[in-house]
Design goal:
The structure is a homodimer. The first copy, chain A, folds into 2 domains: 58 residues, Arc Repressor Mutant, subunit A; 134 residues, no CATH class. The first copy, chain A, contains 9 helices and no strands. The longest helix of chain A is centred in the last third of the chain and has 25 residues. Chain A is elongated. The termini of chain A are far apart. The interface between A and B is large, with 56 and 55 residues. Chain A binds a DNA duplex through helix 3.
DNA sequence: TAGCTTGTTGGCGGACCGTCAACAGCAAGT
DNA sequence: ACTTGCTGTTGACGGTCCGCCAACAAGCTA
């Protein structure tokens, strides 16, 4: 008889196995809520023993965090869009690019960023918040706005808040279709313009005619 | 000897007991994430057997939903604020009222509305979305804006999206203090004004001078 | 082919949750 | 004051899920 008819399981490089498990986990976490995806499900989907998940990722929660991290790392904004024209034009193009990117990830993006997976987990919030910071910094940089360091924390916080609007409207768009893509883009562009004007009031005059009702006081922290 | 020295437990009316459990659950869910609050914890906190929670609320998830519901029902906006003055003034007052209300609920509100509790649960999302609708409708009504029924779904979706901005910025404010209350109020007011102008473009001229760069097309679904 | 490295398995122990039959507080009836 | 009955409440049982770890085996090397 053949010396080793067929091995009962195949031995993979750690990186390969890790990647394979990550993909299965990503798919399942996109289909069902966090609590309803058991490690047994993921293991079965990947065709491995359940204990292997703990071996590679530690806790189930850690595996989920890895999934979120990989999902939120969005590649190259700056290479794919030109940054010319008025502030409004640039804003609209960057929002458009962002919606394109999200559209490719689809439901998994919504499930991960949205009402969440895990319940208010500090680590998860840190990761998402960090990803929001990156996205915000990219956007601001793309808009050609330099961050003066004194207000950095405040500006980042404002952009993270804007991220809340982004996610909520995208959820409306992707999930139920209660907003069309045009609606979403309009909403996000207008809001971003307003925020930029508040955070960087000195740039207001760059965008064509100034607003009629410019609030003279309290456009920034008193200095 | 005394006939019944002291009963080992006290018998309460169902409504009383329910309320007592709800309060303990509310406190605990405000302190820790959903998954880290066991029904045993809640039962111990309330000085009650664990099975009683299931008797009154069914699943642990149902108890959590009850907590969220009670948390999101915010009483009387319309009675407490006058609705006179320009659109900007009314917006700023309503935002201010909302921030006051949230401030009283504190961390629990943030934990409940925020990154959530349960993982993307349809029922939970329905509840939160419904509460957002109520808050949005109250706000719009308070602003003196009548909803024309044709665009109702779209308008509600936009206001729910705005709710995402509200929650995110409030989280920045309450949690880490990365935004001051003034920052939060400024951000939310400006954004709300913009949204109202987009959703109800015909009301733009009510608020002083019109914007210089008013977008003539695509201010609504084509009809 | 024998030996060694290490990727992988499978079961153990513990935590948590939903259910349900039995128990007991307590108010009404005698 | 004692008994009866209603029902609020308890405590344990069965099941699921997860983290851990010793044993196992795939596959390279000599």
């Amino acid at each position: 008889m053949s010396p080793a008819a067929s091995p009962r399981w195949k031995r993979l490089e750690p990186d390969e196995r890790r990647e394979q498990i990550l993909e299965c986990a990503t798919r399942l976490f996109g289909e069902r809520p966090y609590a309803e995806v058991s490690t047994t499900d993921i293991a079965r989907e990947a065709g491995v023993a359940r204990g292997l998940l703990n071996h590679y990722f530690g806790q189930k929660r850690d595996l989920y965090l890895k999934v979120v991290k990989r999902m939120l790392l969005m590649p190259g904004l700056e290479e794919s869009v030109t940054m010319t024209g008025t502030l409004r034009e640039r804003v609209e193009r960057s929002v458009e690019w962002y919606l394109d990117t999200v559209a490719t990830h689809g439901k998994t993006y919504v499930a991960v960023t949205g009402m969440g997976g895990i319940g208010s987990d500090p680590e998860l919030e840190r990761i998402i918040s960090e990803a929001d910071d990156v996205a915000a910094a990219k956007t601001l940089e793309f808009l050609g706005l330099k961050v003066e360091v004194g207000n950095d924390a405040r500006h980042r916080a404002m952009m993270r808040s804007y991220g809340g609007l982004v996610k909520a409207s995208i959820r409306e768009w992707i999930r139920g279709g209660t907003l069309s893509r045009e609606d979403t883009q309009l909403l996000l562009s207008e809001a971003l313009i307003v925020i930029v004007r508040d955070v960087f009031p000195q740039l207001a005059q760059q965008d064509g005619p100034a607003r009629g009702d410019a609030r003279a006081p309290k456009t920034g922290p008193k200095r």
